[in-house]
Automatic annotation (TrEMBL):
Keyword Cell division: no
Name of this chain's protein: Alpha-hydroxy-acid oxidizing enzyme
Cofactor: FMN
Active-site residues annotated for this sequence: H306
PANTHER family registered for this protein in UniProt: 2-HYDROXYACID OXIDASE 1, S -2-HYDROXY-ACID OXIDASE-RELATED
Gene3D superfamilies: Aldolase class I
Domain of life: Bacteria
One Pfam family here: FMN_dh
Stated family: Belongs to the FMN-dependent alpha-hydroxy acid dehydrogenase family.
Organism (species): Amycolatopsis pithecellobii
Residues annotated as domain FMN hydroxy acid dehydrogenase: 34-411
CDD domains named among the record's database cross-references: alpha_hydroxyacid_oxid_FMN
GO terms, molecular function: FMN binding; oxidoreductase activity, acting on CH-OH group of donors
SUPFAM superfamilies, per the entry: FMN-linked oxidoreductases
Amino acid sequence: MDRDARARYRQLPRWSELAPLLQPKPLVLSGDRRRARRAATVRDFSAAAQRRVPRAVYDYVAGAAEDERSMWRARAVLESVEFVPRVLRDVSDVDPTVSLLGREASIPVVFAPTGFTRMMHHEGERAVARAAGAAGIPYALSTMGTTSIEAVAAEIPACRRWFQLYLWSDRARSRDLVRRARDHGYEALILTVDTPVAGSRLRDVRNGMTIPPSLGLSTIVDGARHPHWWFNLLTTPPLSFASLSGWRGTVADLANQLFDPSVTLDDLAWLRSEWDGKLIVKGIQSVDDAEAAVAAGADAVVVSNHGGRQLDRCATPLEALPSVAEAIGDRAELLVDGGFLSGSDVVAALCLGADAILVGRAYLYGLMAAGEPGVRRVADLLAKEIRVTMQLLGAATVKDLTPAMVRLPRMSERPGPVLPM
């Protein structure tokens, strides 16, 4: 075909043909909403968070204890999971809802308790609770949270609220927190038991992390790169805590004021007698401890190594999960946390026996990057990823997820170090 012949096959596009292709995105004035909309994964939020907040704040969320081996091993195990899908199943309408502690959750996810949340974004726990309420999942307020028990209950009444507790040496103060949670409609109490003392979090040590943030020279220099963060911090009410007020010092010093290294099973039994709601024990890493917690009255246990933030080189939650699930059976509900960043991570744990998964860093990345819209987007991403993974596995309901659908390679078969979160 000569040039003239080829030219006869070309024509200028008509407007009627071009118009359908021109679909500009609607103008979004809110920077938080724009950043939330752009994120396609939790890792996208992590990258955005690094640009939005000072380094010490990001490292407080992303870091772990000592050499951070526990954190990276948890991620390496999650990355190594292999799915074994079932085909020719009707997955046109999958249902990811679950029953947690007697009430329905839209997906098998709980927003975990995290400390100092208003330091990540000035709306802090309020933003997270609103997002959890909108998503139809529970939210756990931390003893070391920066919004009070009463404020979260009053401002976000529609959210399912759990309260996380450290037992203090002063039992009267612990009893007061329990009473306040009961009086303000918190349906469950989470006792964290893997914190006899604070873990050695070297990023915080090197960054000089204090509560509230101190204005040293390096902080001022870093602050100049994040003026929006400092403006929000300095023009909103001072940081306050669910359990104490007027604290000034390092994170580790505060933790050691709160943690009681003498806590035993007798104290768990005491708490069971003080609290008539659902009781969850978080920080279980062995079958023996899981069975002891259930025998002492726990309604649920959380297989957890505190996100690798306490003891380095400790058990990897996903690997510990199947043996704990077999041991406790249906005597208590079983949750797990530790490095979960995607819906496929969540589904892997469900296959191995978990009833639900607690996520902390994942929603904090969304909060740091884009405030409440970021947290809502994280919940939406997890929900979508869970549904798609279930469909591809051939599971129409969460009950259809079984251990036969996953394989955990032996240590020698696993990939090398994973990229930082």
